[in-house]
Amino acid sequence: MTETTLDPSLTVVILAAGQGTRMKSALPKVLHTIGGRPLVGHVLDTARDLAPSHVLVVVRHERDLVAEAVLGVSPEVVVVDQDDVPGTGRAVELALDSVPAFDGDVLVLSADVPLLDADALGALVAGHRRAAAAATLLSAVLDDPAGYGRVIRDDSGGVDRIVEHKDATAEEAAVREINAGVYVFRARELRARLPLVGTENAQREKYLPDVIGMLRRDRLPVAARVADDPSLTLGVNDRAQLADVGKLLNARTVRRWQLAGVTVQDPATTWIDVTAELAPDVTVLPNSHILRASTVATGAVIGPDTRLVDTEVGEGATVTRTDATLAVIGARANVGPFAYLRPGTRLGAEGKIGTFVETKNAAIGDGSKVPHLSYIGDTTIGRGVNLGAGAITANYDDLAKHRTEIGDHVHSGSHNVFVAPVRIGDGAKTGAGAVIRKDVPAGALALSVAPQRNVEGWVEKNRPGTGAADVAARSRSAQKADDGAQEEG
Predict the structure, then answer these.
(1) Domain count, the chain
(2) In angstroms, rounded to a whole number, what is the distance separating the alpha carbons of residues 33 and 116?
(3) CATH code of residue 378
(4) Does one domain contain both 79 and 36?
């Protein structure tokens, strides 16, 4: 839907009060996530795209937790508390009480039906208005309608009533057209009938679909629009359905980025959250996850086997077999394979974080390299630095974290330990195996060398009977024989 002008004649009510017992979870059902957002967050995004005059979200189970999540996504919405009277009819009744002056169309959505988009809902509202209907419901035809309310039509093909699955007869349960739980009502007709809805049903709840039967008995027009794509109407009631709907959403997201110019080599193993952003000419290799607010710039190559969470990847960068969270990777930088970038990592342009390197709260300057087998934490590294294999910044003294500062164009030897707090000046060098405990001036060479001491015969004395002792003894005997022959010669 491209129209974004405010629609003063439309109010959206989102039902988010249920417990969702089939999820078997301490977390409310509507807060389970797919595509980087909670279920209710997807519905809120779609409601906002419709530009209604009001968005009302009805909550009850884990009220504060759900309300906080709702307002975190859409702070402009009105949260409505459901009372002790159960059912969708009562939820909508309370929502309408919060906007007593509204007299337009009321679109009712379920917080656990996350795939419906603004195009489908905009068409539903437009059709409702063209037909001058008192109510219009969205339906779908499913191969397996179990668990859904059934749409029962009259002899002329019009909507007669909706029967909940638990209240359906065998004949009604055989109907494959289901109620998607999405309705448009004229507010005036809806207000007049909600107080009349009873609780004479298997669940002892006030069912919103009962209003449809009341409107039909009053000979008011009720319409139904069958969804062109039934998958859009799928709801989430358990973990299996959560996974199914998540997979469908991801397939849509991946295809959207493919059509926008992103190469996704294997869509089946690629996961991209709806909150992530990718530029044209990005390449995503198999088994890669681009999650939450991650952004990937033009020409970058991600994967294979890579997970980015809230991470920014610059133009032309390559990130291979890497796990990165809250990190920034500069243009034309190279990361991985088998790198672990923890929050606060910032790698400059044309820099490198290599194989089996872990970084945390580390700023690594343009063109600097941490090639392999290193831990760099709470560190600032200048430009053009090359750290040897096995570099460790010892940032924790058992009481507090301390920073290491490494200047521009520093070159360290292999297997260095920088004991923070410590500063290495511009252009300095360090020797292999050095333990750097003091600041190193610019241009200096830092060494920590102890004399090597060899204890002759230690293995034969302390490890008798071992293979090492036997071969050492033979080698010593052979060496003595060689020395004796040389003396005789």
Answers:
(1) 2
(2) 16
(3) 2.160.10.10
(4) yes
Catalytic-role residue among 372, 402, 411, 415: 372
Q: 350 is in which domain, residue-wise?
A: 262-446
360 in the same domain as 267 = yes
204 plus 307 within the same structural domain: no
Residue 199, C-beta contacts closer than 8 angstroms, at least 6 positions apart: 87, 205, 206
Residue 476 structure tokens: 């010593």
Residue 282 and residue 195 share a domain? no
> Considering the domain boundaries, does residue 279 fall inside one?
yes
CATH of the domain at 49: 3.90.550.10
**213 half-sphere exposure, CB direction, 13 A CA radius:** 15
Q: Is 481 part of a structural domain of the chain?
A: no
> Within a domain: residue 462?
no
Which tokens sit at 31?
A: 């807060």
Question: Exposed, middle or buried, 230 (CB in 10 Å: 0-12/13-18/19+)?
Answer: middle
pTM score, two decimals?
A: 0.88
Q: What is the pLDDT along the chain (489 residues), one digit of tens a residue?
A: 444 688 999 999 999 998 889 999 999 999 999 999 999 999 999 999 999 999 999 999 999 999 999 999 899 999 999 999 899 999 999 999 999 999 999 999 999 999 999 999 999 999 999 999 999 999 999 888 888 889 998 888 888 888 888 888 998 999 999 988 899 999 999 999 999 999 887 788 898 989 998 999 999 999 999 999 999 999 899 999 999 999 999 999 999 999 999 999 999 999 999 999 999 999 999 999 999 999 999 999 999 999 999 999 999 999 999 999 999 999 999 999 999 999 999 999 999 999 999 999 999 999 999 999 999 999 999 999 999 999 999 999 888 999 999 999 999 999 999 999 999 999 999 999 999 999 999 999 999 988 888 999 999 999 999 999 999 999 988 888 887 777 776
Residue 253: inside a domain, yes or no?
A: no
Let me know if 372 is a catalytic residue: yes
Residues 213 and 307 in one domain: no
> In this structure, are 383 and 291 located in the same domain?
yes
Strands (E), 397-480: 404-406, 411-412, 417-419, 422-424, 429-430, 435-436, 445-446
